[in-house]
Design a protein that fits this description.
homodimer; MgtE N-terminal fold; CBS-domain; Tetracycline Repressor, domain 2; three-stranded mixed β-sheet; 6 strands; 6% strand; magnesium (chains A, B); MgtE_N_sf (chains A, B); Magnesium transporter MgtE (chains A, B); MgtE_transporter (chains A, B); metal-binding (chains A, B)
C-alpha cells in the first residue's frame, strides 16, 4: 500500500471541510487507515480537525485519537463535550481509553466516565486508572479471551467466539479456574483437534509466562522480549487473571523509555518534542543548566584559589578547558556503558573486578592521550620538562578518576534504588569538571611548587 | 511461570556435567525455555557450555544460540565443527541462520553452507546474506504462508497446513499471483466461512502494507509501529513476495538502534557491552577522546592568544570552564531534541521558524542564567560593573550560538545524507567549547579593552 499523506490530499480535505462537503469527505477518508487519519488531523487547523473528528464515526476517530501526539489530542479533546469523549472511549480498548482519560483533569474524568453507557467498560477503565502507568497494570488491557478449566470443549468454542468479538487480536487463550486464577493457556490447534467431549482441564498447557499488576514496565518488556512473546497475561495479588499486555504497547513503551533515557543523558528533564512550546522547552532544559551553572560557579571559586600560579605558570590556565573536557567526556562514556549494563542486567562480576578493569582501561586510554598531548605540546608549544610532566600526569589521573566516577556513581545510585540515569550527562560532566580542575591544579602545585 | 536461573541450578548443572550424568541433565533441562538455556550457557565455563550444546538436541540449542550475546556465541561456535554448526542452522528460521552465518569468517561460511542438507533452506540463507543487515531484506525471514490467487479454497487449506508446519507464527496469509507478485492478504475468518468452491481471488483483501527489500530497518520499524503490525511482507524490485519481517525482530532492532544512538551521544563509536574486553572498549572510546583532545588543543591555542588579558583581568580565565560547560550543555540539549525530531519525522515548519524559535528560547534561558550568575557574582565575588556586563553578555551570546550550532549542525548533516547522530555528544561539546571561548574573550576584549 505504502500510503503517503500528501500536501495535495491535505489541501483537498481542507477544501472539502471549508465547503462542508460531508459526503465527499466520508468517501475520501473511508479507505484511509486510522494512523494516517491521525497524521491528517495533525496537519489541519484545530477547527478543521475538530470538524473532521465530529464527522467521522467514532470507531475510526477513536483509533486515530490514540495515534495523535499528546499535545494535539489535548487541544481536540478540549473542543469535545464529555458525552462526545465518552462515545470515543466506548470504541477504544480499555487500556487506550484509560490512557486518554488520565490526560484529562480530575473533574473532567468523572463527568466523562459517567457518560460511558457500557457499565462493564466503564468499570474496567476505572480499574486500570488505579495502576501506575509504568507498571504491568498500567500497560495492560482488560480485553482478552479466557476459558474456565471446567468447561467442555464444545461450550468453550461458543464462549470463545463471543469473547473474541471484543478482542482485536486473540494471540492466546488463557485458562482460569472457578476463582478466576490463571492456570495455563490453550493452543488453538489442541482445541480444534480435541474430542468434543473432553474438558479444558484435559488439554490445556499448564505452563504460562505471566506478570503481576505491579511488575515494572521495564521488566514486562524484558520478559516479553526474552521469550519472544506477543502477549503476556497479568495477574493480581491473588493470582487472578485481570488483563494482558500486548506487544504493540510494549514497542511503544520501549521507544518512549529509550527517548526518555536519551533526553535525560542530554540534560532534558521531561519528555519534550521538538515542536513543544518555548515555555515547555525552557522548563525541560533550564533545571540542568542551572545545576551546570552552579557547578561552573564552584570551578570559578576553585580556580580562584590557585591564582598564585598565574604569575609564573599562566599556561596552566590555558589547559583548563582541555582537562575539563577530557574529564567530562570520559565520565559520560563510562556512565553510558554502565547504565546500559544495568538496564540489560548484563553487569556481571564483583565491584572489585570492575574497579580493576576500569582503572586499567582508563590508564591505557590516559597513556595514549597523554603521549599525543605531549608530542603536540613539545612540537608546537615548546613544553619544558616539568610542565610536560605536570600536564601528562594530570591528564592520566583525571581520566582515571573521571572514569571511576562515571562508573561507580550510577552503580551506587542503583543500589540505593535511585534511577541511575540521573547520574549521566550534565551531572557527570559538571562534577567531573570540578574534580578534574582540582586534580590538575593539585598535581601542578606539587610538581611546579607555586 | 516466572522462572529464574538460580545459582543452585547452575551448580547442579555444573555437577552433572562434571560427572557426565547425561540422562539427568536432559531431564533437568527438558522443561526449561531456550532463552533460559541461553542464560545458563552464559554462566558456564566454555568447556561445560560446549558439552551442553553438544548434548542437547539441535532444535533446543539452535534457539538458545540465537539468544546468546555475540561474544559467547562466537566462542562456542569456534568449538563446533562445520557439520555441527550446519545442524544447528537447519533448525533455525532463515533470518536467524543468516545472522549467525554472517558472524563466521568467509571461509567458514562456505564450508558450513555446504554441510546444510536441506537445499532449499541453504538457498534461502544464501539469498538473505546478500542484503544489508539494516534493510528489510536483512531483517526478513523466508518463512511465511502464501497462497496463489487462482487456487480454490479447498486446495488452499491443504497447502496452507503444509506451509504452516515450517512457520513459528502464521500472523498473516499472503496472496500472490502466478508470478509470485504480492496481491493482498487473506483473513483466516473469511477463509473459514467462504464456500469451498470459491477461489482465493474472490475473497482476498487487496490492500496490504508491505516494504521493499531495500527499505531501511528504521523505516520498517516506523511503518510496523504506526500501523500496529505484527508482520509485514517484503517484496523484491519486481514486486515478488520474498519474505516477511516479524515484530520480535523489530523489537530487537528498535532496542539496538536506541542503544547505538545512546552510545553515539556518549562518544562511544561501536556497540560495546559493559563486559567487553579492555581492548574492545578502548577501540570504542579512544577515537572520540582523541577528537576531544584535539579540540582541547585548539582551545589552549585560542586562550594563548588572549594572554594579554592575564595581567589586569585574570578572573576572566577563572570563568572559562563555566562558559565552556554552559556552551557544551546547551549544545547537547539542542542537538538531542533535533535528533529525536528527525528520527520521529516530527520536525515541522520552515528553517526560519526554527531559527527564530531557537533564538527566543536560548535568549530566555540565557537571561535567566545570566541573572543568576550576576546575582551570585555580585554577592560572592564582588563583580564590578564592566566585569559583570562582560560575563552576562558573554553567557547569553554563548548560549544562543551554542543552541544554534546544536540545532542546525544535525539538520544540515541530515540534509546531506550524513547520519545526524554523529553531531552530538563529544562533537557538539568540543566545538561549542571552542566557539564559547572565542566568543567570551572577544566580547571581553571589546568591553574591557585589553
Amino acid at each position: 500500500m505504502q500510503f503517503q499523506v500528501s500536501d495535495e490530499l491535505i489541501e483537498r480535505i481542507e477544501f472539502l471541510i471549508e465547503n462542508q462537503k460531508d459526503e465527499e469527505l466520508l468517501d475520501l477518508l473511508e479507505e484511509i487507515h486510522h494512523a494516517d487519519i491521525a497524521e491528517i488531523i495533525t496537519e489541519l487547523e484545530l477547527e478543521q480537525a475538530t470538524y473532521l473528528v465530529k464527522l467521522l464515526d467514532s470507531q475510526k476517530t477513536a483509533e486515530a485519537l490514540m495515534e495523535l501526539d499528546i499535545g494535539v489530542r489535548e487541544r481536540i479533546l478540549e473542543t469535545l463535550s464529555s458525552k462526545e469523549i465518552a462515545e470515543e472511549l466506548e470504541e477504544m480498548d480499555t487500556d487506550d481509553a484509560a490512557d486518554i482519560i488520565s490526560e484529562l483533569s480530575l473533574e473532567r474524568q468523572q463527568t466523562v466516565i459517567a457518560e460511558i453507557q457500557d457499565e462493564q467498560h466503564a468499570g474496567d477503565i476505572v480499574e486500570l486508572l488505579r495502576y501506575d502507568e509504568n507498571s504491568a497494570g498500567g500497560l495492560m488491557a482488560k480485553e482478552l479471551v479466557k476459558v474456565n478449566e471446567n468447561w467442555s470443549v464444545t461450550g468453550c468454542m461458543t464462549e470463545m467466539r463471543a469473547q473474541a468479538e471484543n478482542v482485536t487480536r486473540v494471540h492466546s487463550i488463557y485458562v482460569v479456574d472457578n476463582k478466576d486464577k490463571l492456570k495455563g493457556r490453550l493452543s488453538l490447534k489442541d482445541l480444534l483437534t480435541a474430542s468434543s467431549k473432553a474438558n479444558i482441564s484435559d488439554i490445556y498447557i499448564p505452563t504460562v509466562d505471566y506478570v503481576n499488576v505491579h511488575t515494572e514496565g521495564e521488566e514486562v518488556a524484558r520478559v516479553m522480549q526474552k521469550y519472544d512473546l506477543e502477549a503476556i497475561p497479568v495477574v493480581d495479588e491473588m493470582g487472578r487473571l485481570v488483563g494482558r499486555v500486548t506487544i504493540d504497547d510494549i514497542v511503544d513503551f520501549i521507544r518512549e523509555e529509550a527517548e526518555r533515557d536519551y533526553q535525560m543523558a542530554a540534560g532534558i528533564s521531561e519528555g519534550v518534542e521538538a515542536d513543544a512550546s518555548i515555555w515547555k522547552l525552557t522548563r525541560a532544559r533550564l533545571p540542568w543548566l542551572i545545576l551546570a551553572l552552579f557547578g561552573g560557579f564552584v570551578s570559578v571559586t576553585v580556580l580562584g584559589t590557585f591564582d598564585a600560579a598565574m604569575q609564573e605558570h599562566a599556561a596552566l590556565f590555558f589547559f583548563v578547558p582541555l582537562i575539563a573536557a577530557m574529564a567530562g567526556n570520559v565520565g559520560v562514556q563510562s556512565s553510558a556503558i554502565v547504565l546500559q549494563g544495568l538496564a540489560n542486567q548484563s553487569l556481571r562480576g564483583s565491584l572489585l573486578q570492575r574497579l580493576i578493569k576500569e582503572v586499567l582501561l582508563s590508564l591505557l586510554n590516559g597513556v595514549v592521550l597523554a603521549t599525543l598531548l605531549l608530542v603536540g605540546g613539545i612540537l608546537l608549544l615548546g613544553f619544558d620538562f616539568l610542565f610536560g610532566l605536570t600536564i601528562g600526569i594530570s591528564l592520566i589521573s583525571v581520566i582515571i578518576i573521571a572514569s571511576l566516577i562515571g562508573t561507580f556513581v550510577p552503580i551506587i545510585l542503583d543500589k540505593f534504588g535511585i534511577d541511575p540515569a540521573m547520574a549521566t550527562g550534565p551531572f557527570i560532566t559538571t562534577s567531573n569538571d570540578i574534580f578534574g580542575i582540582i586534580i590538575f591544579f593539585s598535581i601542578a602545585k606539587s610538581i611546579l611548587e607555586f
